[in-house]
Write a structure and sequence with these properties.
GO terms for molecular function: carbohydrate binding. This is Carboxypeptidase regulatory-like domain-containing protein. Keywords: Membrane, Transmembrane, Transmembrane helix. The chain is an alpha+beta fold. It has one domain (3-149): Immunoglobulins (Immunoglobulin-like, Sandwich). The chain is built from 1 helix and 9 strands. Strands 1, 3, 4, 5, 7 and 8 form a 6-stranded mixed sheet that branches. The longest helix is centred in the first third of the chain and has 26 residues, at 3-28.
């Protein structure tokens, strides 16, 4: 592949990643957001997560899987409790999972009913930088465990 094409693909990937992270950051911060139309003929259909009209909590089990998220400190040694976790299905259109959970004392959040397919998990805490893991695969009637290393925000030294 030509070097110039690789750069274009890399830049486009960074742009998509940053856009998704900004959208999830706004959602995790509980800011209001507008609903996005699901018209498949629209050029923007599938570019932003929408509220899921087919709530995964009501779908048949053969279309669902389980996702377990564990948040750890930046060294990957200690669990980090109280982190808000969100899931976005990467199908067309992208679908925001209806539940956002906080991690428990062991740094765990369990999503027992998630639509099977490709998804992204993001986590953010009041003292931690947002962390995402993208392009994860979930098969129907299976489970997937995601470990996210949380980095603490910088604080002023000595204060």
């Amino acid at each position: 592949m030509h070097r110039g094409v690789r750069w274009v693909i890399a830049i486009a990937g960074v742009g998509v990643s940053l856009s998704l992270a900004a959208l999830l950051r706004r959602h995790l911060a509980h800011e209001p957001r507008a609903m996005v139309a699901t018209d498949a003929g629209s050029p923007d259909a599938g570019s932003m997560p929408i509220e899921d009209p087919e709530d995964p909590r009501t779908l048949e089990p053969s279309r669902l899987g389980r996702v377990y998220v564990r948040t750890l400190d930046s060294w990957g040694l200690k669990p980090v409790p109280g982190i808000t976790v969100a899931i976005v299905s990467e199908g067309r259109p992208r679908r925001l999972h209806p539940e956002q959970l906080k991690t428990d004392a062991q740094g765990m959040a369990s999503f027992p009913k998630v639509r099977a397919g490709t998804f992204t998990v993001c986590a953010m805490g009041p003292r931690h930088i947002e962390t995402c893991q993208m392009n994860l695969e979930l098969s129907p009637e299976s489970s997937h465990t995601v470990e996210l290393s949380m980095t603490e925000r910088s604080t002023a030294a000595g204060r």
